[in-house]
Amino acid sequence: MTDERNQRTPAPQPGQSDQPVQPAHDHPIAPVPDRSGQSGQPVHDQSEHPARDQRVQPARDQLGQPAQLVSDQSEQFDQPVQSGQPVHPVPDRSEQSVPAQTVRSDQSAQSVPIQPVPGRADHVDRPSVASPSAAAPGPFPTVVDPAGPANMLADRTPAGPAAPPLLRPADDPGAGADPGLSAADIDRGLARLDPLTVRPRTSSRVLCVVFGLLLLAAAAGVWWLGVRTVDGQSYDDMVYTYLPDMLPGWMAPAIGVFAVSLVVEVVAALLAVGALASAVARRRWWLIGQAAAFGLLCLAVSRLKYVLPRPFLVYTESNAVNSAPSGHTILAAAAGMALLLTVPRVGRAIVAVLGAAFAFLVAVSVIDAHWHRTTDVVMALLLTGGLALLALAFTRTSGMDAPGGRASSPAVQIVGTVMVTGGVMASLYAAYLIWQIQPGLELSAEWARSGACASTVALTAGVTLLVFGLVLAMRQITAAPLSRAGLVGAPPAPPHR
Asked: Using alpha carbons only, what angle is made at residue 344 by residues 339 and 345, rounded to the nearest 5 degrees?
């Protein structure tokens, strides 16, 4: 029987196609009765021809099932291969165990490289053929070959670096729990999360520079008008002579208290100590540097009185020596603004009001005590406000409120708006009064005296309100910018159409 079959079926030649053998005549070939009921084409016994290539079984195609490739290596199973368990081979085949984490294709067992996962240093190209001992134990399963028919998993512990610790703000009580995390690391981490957590918006800093330069320019203009013109010297001398008699009676007690130099110095020192204590308690280290630089600048500009000239243009009752700017006024305003820069959000509005009141009383008191002229105190207030705004332009990191604790302040918005608006209106009213009395300044007319004293009080109050209101507003927008990561209760997003 074997000889006849070998004679009818010639052996395949080298390079012969793997297509199934087709009959040489048009008549169908009778099915083989002992071949599991299949018909259509003759099926050769695979056990008698182990070296023959694969053959397609057309009977499975007729039943609507995918054709099965019978490989001389092993069959492919639909069930996942468990690591460490042998796979039973095809009957009549030699006993072979399939190694764990091995993926076999239709032709032969090939190594399928795994693409590295972005951002994970522990994933590298590894072949899928590996022994169970090659896989390191770990709690995280890793798919060796997700594209293969078998979902083979292996437990491996990632060998990459551990995740960085949770970043906390500098004033967080739990910040000390991470001894290896420096302040620079916290700043870099927060900057990656949201740049507004470590520095204000560029527009806010530009506004601080613009308003600061405008105030400094206004101070220079006030000095020029009050010192370098005849009307300016006449106006200062008229107020210097008649203001003590023109002040209302209810202002006399407060003016008399702050007319003592020691009282002004003690109150200013207490405000400076409070500013330092507030910054240290909140761990606002950069803010301490800002306040110190601001104080040194104020001290430097107070020495301008010994540098700036005062030409003799008209005879005056006051001292002909230059006295601008007023050192006591700079001291009072600088102490109040330093405290305003360092206190937290809840205290900014009340500190701005108290600081403005202290600076105003000191400014009026030095005129009433014949220490300074109107030009001196107005110039001092403008210089102090301009320097404070320039210092705010360099706000960053710990000079701001702590991320996560920021919020908009209705008190700051209301008080700041009222102070700025009131300051502008009072200054305009004072300018109107000066314009009305200008013809009688050079002659020192009696009818111009009351107007000159009233304009001095209005101008001093207006400039004080203006500079403290601007510093209050700019401090809020530089310390607590509206940001998703750093602001609690961010403004709602616009509605979607």
From this structure: 115
Residues across the chain: 497
Angle at the Cα of 333 from the Cα atoms of 331 and 306, rounded to 5 degrees = 45
Q: Say what the pTM is.
A: 0.62
Condensed to tens digits (0 to 9), the pLDDT of residues 427-463 reads 999 999 999 999 999 888 899 999 999 999 999 999 9
- The alpha carbon of residue 349 and the mean position of all alpha carbons in its chain are separated, in whole angstroms, by 25
Cα-flanking dihedrals φ and ψ of residue 104, to 5°? -105, 135
Q: How confident is the model at residue 405 (pLDDT cuts 50, 70, 90)?
A: confident
Residue whose tokens read 């400039």: 463
**What is the rounded distance in angstroms from the CA atom of residue 241 to the CA atom of residue 441?**
13
Note the maximum CA span of the chain: 148
Give the pLDDT score at 406.
79
How far apart CA 54 and CA 18 sit, in angstroms, is 7
CB 400 within 8 A of CB 200: yes
Going from the C-alpha of 373 to that of each of 177, 227, 435, 453, 468, the distances in angstroms are 57, 10, 19, 11, 21
375 token code pair:
């030009």
360, two tokens: 């105003």
